[in-house]
Amino acid sequence: MRHAVAGYEHTPVLRNISVDICTGETVAVMGANGSGKSTLMRALLGIVPLTSGSVEIHGTPLRRFRQWPRIGYVPQRLAAGGGVPATVGEVVASGGIARHWSRPLLRRILRTGARDDRRLVTEALDSMGLTTLANRSVHELSGGQQQRVLIARALAGGPDTLLLDEPMAGVDAANQQALADALERLTHRGYTIVLVLHELGPLAPLVHRAVVLSDGRITHDGPPPQPTGDCAAPGHEHIHPHAGPTGVGSGRDTLDATQLGGLPGA
Amino acid sequence: MLDLLDYDFMRRALLAAVLVGLAAPAIGTFIVQRRLALLGDGIGHVALTGVALGFLTSTSPVLTAVIVSVLGAIIIEVMRVRARTGGDVALALLFYGGIAGGVFLIGLAPGATNATLTAYLFGSVSSVTEQDVYVVSVLAALVLAVVAYFGRELFVLCQDEEVARASGLPVRFLSLLIGIMAALTVVIAMRVVGVLLVSALMVVPVAAAQQLTRSFRVTILLAMGIGVLSALAGLSSAYYVDVAPGATIVLIALAVFTVSVAGGRLLRRGAQTSEWSGDPTAEGNVEDVPRTDQGSVST
Question: Percentage of residues in chain A with pLDDT exceeding 90?
């Protein structure tokens, strides 16, 4: 993202933001309420249009970016869907739509690749410990369980990059730790992860870098501020053994469920 | 019992009713999921202008209604995207414009009066012609085919538009598709229940079904079942008791909804799922289903 300016109704929310996120990095975008951190993430995804500046994803300008299956977007909460019920399995399976839609028209009509899509869905459910909940209605679940549904939906597209908007909001402490563990396993798999966070909390150990926003400007970009101090020591430069310079996109079609492990059902 | 099948007009009416009962809840489920429950009403009002235009130009009112209501759906969608703050006002403007335009134009049409419009306002299923049945069949098949083919895409879009965008889905195209399918459904249902009650067939069966289900797929199928059941039951009771068919169909659907609310409560009490404890979700569903944020999640 370069010199990005964005806003709603002529009120700028982002003022000249430039940020590079490297493959395999885990970056936290932090800041107070209204600092523009959620807008930053939405601008990265093209949900909020930029007034000026540019966004490139995996080296492609956003306008021409078509590899949407590589991106897994985890919104802050599950949209209510007008009260129409949906099962965990249905919501997670809908995450495969990016893969389906990225195929050429003929393959879409013939539904080729449906078996691969289903396998990814099964693995995504498994990796988030949701297999036994697959037939439950998402509206019956706790906040932590719903967050896992949202992450599993993002994983069902087989992405290499995850963008999470406040994944800990509305999740109780015990489940926050379980979620943090699940995310940590994903970082070890080489995922690039961008998190919008109010506070680091249990995610502190896996965040390499924090971008702190204030009033639409970057006020800090570097190692995350650590109130406890243990990880903030100088020399805590994170060298990531899993992220090669060529990127992780190539081998990302196979999500290894055994390595991701299962979450304890909470 | 089956003597009502002896009459041609009744066979046509029943066929039209079944098609409406299938198509309206099918697209209606997505509209309710998208929290646009009033969309059908808006398009219905606009369709009335189309009907009047048909009389004025001495062409088929059904065909002009198709054209005008599709245009109306496109305008509603454009206004919804452009005017982020005044979406409901934009819809209201279309309501009034549609009704006023219809009454105004019908006055100009030779030989047609407001009474002509009444058949379209409240439905007149017994006057369905052979040509109407063809048009209704083709449109219903189109709506059902679109829902079947784009079901997954529409599900993602109606669940969360931002996720749809971040999945690379053509959000604008799919939004227009929903609007246009809703417009076609309005025209299909117009002859059976009338433009003022069209939206009821899109919303009420869905509201009833979602009391009893936990899966989207089952909801849409059950809603279609309730739609067909209400349409057939309403039409046959109208035949035997001589009451207004459109209104009877809608009242039966509402009765099914009431029973579903009670049934849903019993189901959930029986299941004793811990997550339901005092959750406002269950209550919200009962009060005014389509437009509230009930079922909204987490804390």
Answer: 5
For residue A21, the SS3 value is coil
What percent of chain B has pLDDT above 70? 88
Token code pair at residue B99 = 């009704």
Q: Do A86 and B160 touch (CB under 8 A)?
A: no
User: Residue B112 has what pLDDT?
Assistant: 76
pTM: 0.81
Amino acid at B249: I
CB B234 within 8 A of CB B248: yes
Measure B225 CA to nearest chain A CA, in Å: 16
C-alpha A64/C-alpha A60 separation (Å) is 7
Q: What is the mean pLDDT of residues A52-80?
A: 80
If we measure between CA atoms, which residue out of B238, B174, B227, B221 comes closest to residue B199?
B227
Say whether B299 and A46 touch across the interface (CB within 8 A).
no
Mean local confidence (pLDDT), B247-264: 93
Query: Which chain B residue has its CA at the smallest distance from A42's CA?
Result: B162
* CA nearest neighbour of B223 among B242, B243, B200: B200
On whether the CB atoms of residues B137 and B15 are closer than 8 A, the answer is: yes
Rounded CA separation B204/B254 (Å): 6
pLDDT at B142: 94
Q: For an interface test with B, give the residue of A42, A64, A84 to mutate (most B CBs within 10 A).
A: A84
Task: For residue A238, give the H/E element and its range.
Answer: none
Q: Does the structure show a pLDDT above 50 at A19?
A: yes
What are the tokens at B202?
């899109």
Q: How far apart are CA B224 and CA B185, in angstroms?
A: 13
Q: State the ipTM, two decimals.
A: 0.79
Q: At a CB cut-off of 8 Å and minimum separation 6, what does B189 contact?
A: B20, B23, B24, B198, B201, B202
Q: B24-55 pLDDT, tens per residue?
A: 999 999 999 888 888 888 899 999 999 999 98
- How confident is the model at residue B232, as a pLDDT? 92
Pairs across A and B, CB distance < 8 A:
133
Find, in chain B, the residue whose alpha carbon is nearest to that of A103. Answer: B168
Could B298 and A78 be called an inter-chain contact, meaning their C-beta atoms sit closer than 8 Å?
yes
